[in-house]
Design brief:
408 residues, alpha+beta, Alpha-Beta Plaits, 2 domains, 18 strands, 31% helix, 20% strand, disordered N terminus, binds flavin-adenine dinucleotide, binds iron/sulfur cluster
């Protein structure tokens, strides 16, 4: 059994610490389930508590800001700072139980086992999928108020409408377009949370609120890291945290940014965050503010990328029931990937009811290329992390041929 962190897609091969046996793996913390290292890690975290999470994950710049550590904390003492990273609530005392670190998706995760439980068939560079198509919402209410083709919003509107959900975990933006986790309890709530926010939003914390408010059936909308965290919790974690989620909608993600984007980076370029009406990544970072369009080349934004995004290898939210993004489709449309029978049934239902218009996937090669290049970038970062973090539970890493830049 192979363990890893941060999402699917087997590309890195490691020699794990378990007697040096060679294993194919998916990520940067790789070990067999039987490996004493997992047990050692758990034992250490149970003694060190939040301090362990801080030292192993946060200070090593591995944190994706997913919200899982707060969602599982039995004392509810983990909050998120303006940087989107976890910290202890002021004055709170951690009586170490280790659950935050043990359930962090960036500590360990057996992706193969999780994938086996979720998917059927073969996987490729887009993960497992039943069907892929291009679509946009037909509903006039959604035109202009959504990010791309409005498929995520259409899914939520449909699910609230037929009462298949009574809540949705989404990301609501404030007046500066900074997003935070939000538990929508009806379509009007969910509609307010449409459009993309380019900061870490620990969406999984809203699962605690859903439990407290006794909501029964939720949709969880999230980036690939949210979905990896959710699946780890679903697979190994307390069922009370995950059992209310009826389906998951993943959104594509190339990278995300830290709080300096709004606090310094955009203001330094004459952009007032209070005037932003839309942010988008379309080859460039595009900011619509005060009636003007500003386009910033992505390489110029390296200084404000969240460091925990660099080792991330999942572009298309491969752990979702249904994934939605823009790449691959024309402007104003979404690329939709139904992965599980649940996701495919949702898509079928929207199509049968005429809620979606379908079109041609115009750039399938670009979609696959972007997915592969994110895996490659993430792998290279993993190698770098492994080479400097001697204390992490693995010994060496070797990239297969195609990862060294050779054509298959
Ligand atoms: C940080 C980030 C990076 C992205 N990078 C790419 C990319 O490189 N290529 C690409 O094709 N697509 C990317 N996307 C996805 C794209 O922007 C759209 O979300 C997607 O195409 C769905 O469009 P839609 O019209 O259906 O969205 P909508 O109907 O407007 O719904 C968007 C949903 O996303 C949720 N959401 C918004 N921001 C966040 C956030 N920060 N964290 C979690 N949930 C959030 C909202 O709550 C809403 O439910 C990215 C999105 C984000 C947030
Ligand atoms: S009490 Fe909360 S913060 Fe402390 S170790 Fe447990 S989960 Fe982590
Ligand atoms: S990746 Fe998620 S669970 Fe891990 S430390 Fe960051 S917010 Fe917490
Ligand atoms: S790149 Fe996107 S999916 Fe990956 S950790 Fe960053 S925000 Fe999450």
């Amino acid at each position: 059994m192979i363990h890893d962190v941060g999402g699917p897609s087997a590309i890195v091969s490691l020699f794990s610490g378990n007697g040096g046996a060679r294993q194919q793996a998916h990520g940067w913390i790789c070990m067999s389930a039987e490996d004493t290292m997992i047990q050692d890690f758990k034992d250490r975290m149970k003694k060190q508590g939040f301090e362990g999470l801080k030292n192993e994950i946060i200070l090593r710049e591995l944190c994706a800001g997913c919200g899982a550590c707060s969602a599982v904390c039995p004392r509810d003492i983990v909050e998120y700072g303006p940087d989107g990273l976890p910290r202890l609530k002021g004055g709170a005392e951690c009586v170490p139980c280790g659950l935050c670190a043990i359930h962090c998706p960036r500590s360990f995760l057996d992706t193969e086992e999780v994938e086996r439980s979720l998917f059927r068939g073969e996987k490729d560079e887009l993960g497992y999928h039943i069907r892929i198509l291009s679509a946009r919402a037909k509903d006039p209410e959604l035109q202009g108020s959504v990010q791309d083709g409005g498929v995520v919003s259409a899914i939520l509107k449909h699910a609230f409408g037929d009462k298949s959900i009574d809540g949705a975990v989404v990301c609501l933006g404030d007046e500066r377009f900074i997003g935070s986790p939000f538990l929508a309890k009806n379509w009007e709530d969910a509609k307010r949370a449409s459009k993309s926010k380019y900061n870490l939003s620990p969406n999984l914390v809203a699962l605690r609120q859903a439990r407290q408010e006794r909501l029964e059936r939720l949709a969880l909308v999230g980036l690939p890291c949210h979905l990896a965290a959710f699946r780890k919790l679903e697979f190994y974690g307390p069922k009370s945290v995950t059992q209310r989620v009826a389906f998951t909608v993943g959104i594509f993600c190339s990278e995300n940014f830290c709080e300096r984007l709004m606090a310094e980076f955009l203001p330094a370029r004459g952009i007032d965050p209070l005037k932003i009406t839309k942010l988008n990544i379309k080859g460039l970072f595009r900011v619509e503010a005060g009636g003007q369009l500003h386009e910033i080349p992505l390489p110029q934004m390296n200084s404000v990328v969240n460091p925990g995004c660099l080792p991330c290898r999942d572009f298309t939210a491969e752990f979702a029931d249904i994934s939605v993004g823009a790449v691959g489709s024309p402007d104003g449309w979404c690329t939709v990937i139904a992965r599980t029978p649940t996701g495919d049934a949702i898509l079928k239902s929207l199509l049968d009811e005429g809620a979606l218009e379908t079109g041609e996937l115009t750039k399938p090669k670009t979609l696959r290329r972007m997915s592969l290049s994110k895996k490659k970038r993430g792998n290279l970062k993993l190698i770098e992390i492994m080479s400097r973090e001697a204390a992490l539970p693995f010994r060496s890493v070797e990239l297969p041929a195609e990862e060294k830049g050779e054509e298959k």
